Amino acid sequence: MRSTFLLTTVFLTVSFAAISQSVVIDSLNREYLAATSDTTKVKLLLDIATEYEFSDTSGLEVAKKAYRLSQKIDSEKIKTHAAAKLGLFYYQLGIDSGTFLLELAISKYDELSLGTSISDTYLNMSMIHQRKNDNDSAILLLEKSLAVAIENDYDFGVAEANYSLGLIHNIRGKNSSALKHGIQAKEFYEKDGKRKEVSQALNQIGIVYDYMGLYAEAVDHYIQAREIAIETRDTQGEILILNNLGVVYDNMNNPEAALNYYEEALEKSGIFENQEDEATLLNNISYIYLKNGDTLQAKRALWRALEIGYEANIPCFDFYPQEGLGSLYISQNQLDSASYYFNKALINGTECEDVGILTAVYKGLGELFEKRGDFNSALRSFNKSLELAQEADLNNDVKGTLLSLYNFHKSRGNTSAALRHLESYRVLSDSLQKTKNIEKANQLVAEYEFRKQVEEMRTEQLATEMALEEKIATQNRERMFILLALVLLFLLLLTLGRSYFMIQKQNKKLKWLNEEKNTLLGVVAHDLRNPLNMIKGLMQLIVGVKTISEEDDSDKYLHLIKISTQKMSDMIDKVLDISAIENMKVNLNMSKEDLTKLLTRSSENFELLAAKKDIKIEQAYDPNSACYSEVDSNYFEQVMDNLISNGIKFSNPGKKLTIDVKKEEGYQVVSVKDEGPGISEEEQKNLFNRFKTLAAKPTSHEQSVGLGLSIVKKFVTAMEGEIFCKSELGRGTTFFLKFKEA
Q: How many CB atoms lie within 10 A of CB 466?
């Protein structure tokens, strides 16, 4: 599966511009209706036509109107502009008169010495060919545009033509040419003072470096591009850059950082409801899911990306999720489905001349043919993938295909060929994964984040200083007498001192609130694990019942799943309770409860988990003997879930877990005793502190974050109960809960 880059062009309409398009057109139409001069009307009509895509029939009608009206005025320049605009609309539709009008306009521009307009016309014509995937014609027109721009010292035109040429060469896999044009575009944008376009050129250069495996250089250019995008408030451009930072970190085998960038970009893209960005980001995120083995989430993301591509009619995009689905179905051994999507991606990728996707598709086809036993076709596909990747300097793809060829020849017993490809793979891997390359990339990002934080602090400090200076100046102007000035100064110092104290106090409170919030989220992460594990175990049993057992117990297990799911829902409701977070206390629903029933329910919930480890849960109390206390039943069950879960987690198979409740001097005392390794006296001092993990480790590699007993302590205390522990190393541990008898 191949991660997709988001490319930008300065002359293509982006989605957020489309959002404001109708507003701009309405404003121009109002100006047009108010205009009295035909010359002004033609200019406004041409501006309105520019707001439309060349394929838009509404824009065509406006261009026709501008052209007809231009024939009535005595301005060859405006007449030529109108002819060129109408010619572009006809040219997009493939109407012969479009070529005629454009040739006429170019000839007239030449007579009028308007070289910049000639360059722009060729540029717009090339854009139309790019949308039709006719890149050969687009390149010829861009080279004409570039030559005319250079001849007329038209810096912006030189930059535009170079930028577009860089895009096409990048798609075709000609990275050296793409890099050359990208650098030239950046230089001329800088010369012309186009900061936003400089950011786009830097982004394009970063993409080329990433394709070549030069990660530090790629990250360097992405960071520069992002800083300018933030400076120019180009949120759309920042979204593209964040996506591409995700791609480069994915290529550096850091999926966690990649996913962070993708999710930040996805969050920002929601501001503009940009379908192309959303589809691309979902496609890239699916790659992370697949790497993590989450095929269900990967499939959902790919299907959604493909669906958006169809709905929005995004050009040259569908083959990305199609190739992704092909790779996913191979991993699931669904070869017919994989073949279908690979062939769809191959057809679409060939039409769009995207060398990167063709490299990935041929590699996928090689794996497909190998699984089907068609080894000749597999070898041809692998070799084709390698050939395309090497020609285009797609070093990451070269590495992946070399590894596939090594495994292919190894499985076929062709030792010499296998070793040859393995050696090439190792050499290239060493080159791509050089420590300096990765370290430099990470260092650049760290430096950028540090600079950003310093700048934010500096801005805040400056704003504070300016506000304070203004306040002092205002107070100075209000001084009428020396005595009044002294009083005002005293009041000012008193106010500032009190404000400083209040700010410090508020900061401490906010810091504490943030820690409590993080703790509460940790509580959810910890407490949701038990019902989730229960659901997973029950689902496995349901599968076993349906396929092996003659007696169908699935209804019983589904009921237990329902209970576990409801428990998770209750936990989430409690976490989302705003007052619980703001007041740092749990919201109790205290009532008189029979603890024996609650204990029985909790122990039954863990029978399956205990059985998996061959641990017996023994109920030492009489289930028919009622033991009443005032508690919150939900929190009491969470406390018991933590204690029982820990008892199972830290006990070896074959042991016993004993649960009991007894009346003692006006109290109900609940005990949970395990036969685990025990807890030392030193460790018992930190037993109920947050994030304190003990020396004993779970016996079956279960996860432990050190939050459980701090949660238990918090809930028991909230219910006006007590909790304590008795333990000796090697003799197990007993936890006691003490509640007043009701």
A: 10
CA-CA distance, 86 to 76, in Å (whole number)? 15
For 113, the 3-state DSSP assignment is coil
**C-alpha to C-alpha distance for 674 and 294, rounded to whole angstroms:** 36
- SS3 per-residue string spanning 689-742: CCCCCCCCCCCCCCCCCCCHHHHHHHHHHHCCCEEEEEECCCCCEEEEEEEEEC
Residue identified by tokens 């002092």 is: 472
Number of domains composing the chain? 1
Q: Which of 198, 169, 196 is nearest to 183 (CA)?
A: 198
Query: pLDDT band for position 9 (50/70/90)?
Result: very low
Q: Which residues 6+ apart lie within 8 Å of 618 measured at CB?
A: 656, 657, 658, 659
pTM above 0.70, yes or no: no
Measured CA to CA in angstroms, residue 707 lies from 414, 519, 523, 715 at distances of 54, 8, 7, 13
Residue 636: closest CA among 519, 534, 720: 720
Q: Is 592 within 8 Å of 630 (Cβ atoms)?
A: yes
How does pLDDT run across 206-219, given as a tens digit for each residue? 999 988 888 888 99
The answer to whether residue 215 is domain-embedded is: no
CATH number for the domain spanning 699: value is 3.30.565.10
Minimal CA–CA distance to 169: which of 215, 135, 140, 212?
A: 135
Range of the domain at 643: 590-740
Answer yes or no: is 641 within a domain. Answer: yes
Domain-embedded: residue 722: yes
Q: Return the number of other C-beta atoms located less than 10 Å from residue 60's C-beta.
A: 21
Length of the chain: 742
Tell me if 87 is assigned to some domain: no
**Phi and psi at residue 614, to the nearest 5°:** 60, 40
Kindly report the number of other CB atoms within 10 A of residue 359's CB atom: 28
